Amino acid sequence: MTQQGKFILFTLDEFASWLDNLILHRKISLIQNHHTFLPDYKAFNKRKTDKYFTWLVSMEAAHQERGFSEIAQNITTFPDGMLAICRNFETLPAGIKGANANGICMEHLGNFDLGKDTMTEEHKHTIVTINALLCAKFKLGISTKSVVYHHWYDLNTGKQVVEGTGTTKTCPGTNFFGGNTKEACQKNFLPLVEQVVVVA
Ligand SMILES: [Zn+2]
Questions:
Q1: Whose CB has fewer CB within 10 Å in the chain, the N or C terminal residue?
Q2: Ligand 1 centroid to residue 104 C-alpha, Å
Q3: Could you give the percent of the chain with pLDDT greater than 70?
Q4: What pLDDT sits at residue 198?
């Protein structure tokens, strides 16, 4: 575990015990999955030293330029499987319009649109495990009611829309675990999350 300002960098195991000990007063019912788009894997790997904190600080500056008070996400995951706590869990994220009040926002560093970054095995493992840990911690069923993708929400209304309609982003990527639709999530992603054994 290393800390720089509010950012705390963890291995997956360190995060699991941190989460286990966390007492949270805010009610959590939605686990949001996003990709950063930029920085992507190439940008991350280009930096040889201090790449985690440099990118966290840089993302925060970009979010502040867009008018947010601080970095938008509660958690960032990295290509090598490390992850960082960003915005305090007690503070609403600025992740998905209409889904922040009871949400935890996770940004997975990379561009997972088709033909872009190929997710590493370490990154896959962290993303799957962290979704399982958060569902267990907040006593949420592993389903598309609690594990959500940004793509499912209309950017203007903040409501979920039928696939192929409304104004949506591709986030967390058209090739995120084989697709960004609700159907792809149920078929490819949630079965992996269900396989994780969470020791409480
Ligand atoms: Zn997003």
A1: C
A2: 12
A3: 100
A4: 80
